[in-house]
Amino acid sequence: MKTSWSILSLENARLVRAGFFVWTMVFTLTGCSAINVKLGRRVDLSKTPVTSIEVSLPKGPGIAPGHTSPLVVTATQPDGKVLLSEGQGKGKIQWKELKVTATVVTVNQKGVISLAKDPRVSDGRVGHVSVTVPSQPGVMSTELDVPFVYNVAFVSSFSGKAGSDGSNGSDGTDGSSGSSGSMDPNNPSPGGNGGDGTNGSDGEDGGPGGNAPPVQVLMTLQPGSMPLIQFSVSASGHRRLYLVDPQGGTLTVHADGGPGGRGGRGGRGGQGGQGGIGMPDGQDGHSGLDGTNGQDGPPGKGGLITVTYDPMAQAYVTLLHLTGTNGPSPVFQVQAVAPLW
């Protein structure tokens, strides 16, 4: 009977744990939202009438390639009160209760739009966002055009990788304490000497930083009424494209040698053991020597950056910032460069 009762108790415990796990998952997926609505932190749009909605980009009207920007939805209720979306709007409207569709740009479940890094996706186009309230089909959708801007600081890095850090040395072991002698005046005996601590081992040297590859930069003026500069940055079989507005935009290209890895710390020497009590006391053991710290690894070499720019783009070469730490000076050459896309 005891064995059967033990098995039954174990099975009940497993069922309780399984039930608790399922309940936790359900609460995580649905409970938080319901609790937030009940506490007034969020609203349920299926039960909260609104007459109109508007969507905006509070951090600026446009977005640059490779960047993100949060949306904010404003909803007006029949009594004139205003509700804002969660996230950037810090309001009570949940994004999961809104339907957001977008062209050219993409939108995530938190109401943040993003634009691809490749400027060919956005060049000459305008993004568009549309927001509706599925639970209230009578409310008109709100529309927003998203212009694209190129007056930001773009960065293209082909720097070498950092070297690996050296392993730390192991600490030495402490010496053992000496055995106790006799303190009896009629029968004295000396205490035993403490054992010596062992030396800590040396830390390993850091690994060398990686070398940056040679980098080729092409630069040309994009035809059109508005001067924009097309860039192509290529290295190690990879090509990245950029479109830069001279009115505030720049492109920085890194081809730095990777930093060397940090040298490992030397291990601590073990402490000498304490001499035993006696007549006389035993001598303390000698402490071990600390291990030597490893050397930092040498930095890698910077890559040669070669810039070829079209004569029509010569006035805009200052938009380009180059770094090639521990490498040769960049090379500039002028020759005809056709449109890059």
Put the structure in a nutshell:
This protein has 341 residues and is of the alpha/beta class.
Question: Care to describe what's here?
Answer:
There is one protein chain. The protein has 341 residues and is an alpha/beta fold. Among the domains are: 52-148, Immunoglobulin-like, CATH 2.60.40; 154-161 and 207-260 and 299-334, no CATH class. The protein is 11% helix and 24% strand. It has one helix and 17 strands. It has one helix at residues 2-38, and strands spanning 52-56, 68-70, 72-76, 82-84, 99-103, 106-107, 112-114, 127-132, 142-146, 153-157, 215-222, 228-235, 238-244, 250-254, 305-309, 320-323, 331-334. The protein has a five-stranded mixed sheet, with no helix packed on it. A three-stranded antiparallel sheet has the order 1-3-4, with no helix packed on it. Strands 2-7-6 form a three-stranded antiparallel sheet, with no helix packed on it. Strand 6 and strand 7 (112-114) form a beta hairpin. Residues 26-30 have low confidence and may be disordered.
Q: Spans of 5+ residues with little confidence (pLDDT < 50)? A: 26-30
Q: SS-based structural class?
A: alpha/beta
Q: Helix and strand succession?
A: HEEEEEEEEEEEEEEEEE
Distance between the termini: 82 Å
Largest sheet: 5 strands, mixed
Shape: flat
Question: Mean pLDDT, as a whole number?
Answer: 91
**Helicity range of the residues?**
10-25%
Which strand order does the major sheet show?
13-12-11-15-17
Count the beta strands. 17
- Number of helical runs? 1
Q: Strand content of the residues, in percent?
A: 15-25%
